[in-house]
Design a protein that fits this description.
It is globular and about 35 Å long. The longest helix has 16 residues, at 45-60. 31% of the residues are buried. β4 and β5 (95-101) form a beta hairpin. Helices cover 37% and strands 24% of the residues. It is of the alpha/beta class and 118 residues long. The protein has helices spanning 22-31, 45-60, 74-79, 106-117; strands at residues 17-18, 34-40, 64-69, 87-92, 95-101. It has a single domain, classed as 3-Layer(aba) Sandwich (Glutaredoxin). InterPro entries: Thioredoxin, Thioredoxin-like_sf, Thioredoxin_CS, Thioredoxin_domain. This is Thioredoxin. It comes from Natrinema versiforme JCM 10478. Residues 1-118 form the Thioredoxin domain.
């Protein structure tokens, strides 16, 4: 029986991690090699359409998927220059390396992740 991959804090890495603040986001991005952060809002249609794609990527890639609710964490989103949702930020080795606005298709997100996991 396979066990879920977990990070140092015990969070599952096979599904998106919901971020609860700046220090949590910093911990996740520094503890993992590649992290794709989804800045989203519950009321956002494209964000809802992106959810199954992100769940699939969390389960099938080496990247950790983190989700930041921009309504709950407005200052955190603002510090990343998030002007619209969804906005996706990619971190590699603790540093932000990419940022994209809009719901990207799975193949584009997968190739973006794979650039930093190979």
């Amino acid at each position: 029986m396979a066990t879920d991959a977990r990070d140092a804090s015990g969070e599952s890495l096979d599904e998106p991690i919901y971020i609860d603040g700046r220090s949590h986001l910093e911990n996740v991005t520094t503890a993992n090699d590649v992290v794709l952060v989804d800045f989203y809002a519950d009321w956002c249609g494209p964000c809802q359409m992106l959810n199954p794609v992100l769940e699939q990527l969390a389960d099938t890639t080496e990247a950790v998927i983190a989700k930041v609710d921009v309504d709950e964490h407005q200052q955190l989103a603002g510090s990343f220059g998030v002007r619209g949702v969804p906005t996706l930020a990619l971190f590699a080795d603790g540093e932000q390396v990419e940022q994209q606005s809009g719901a990207l298709p799975e193949d584009r997100l997968r190739s973006l992740i794979e650039r930093y996991t190979e």
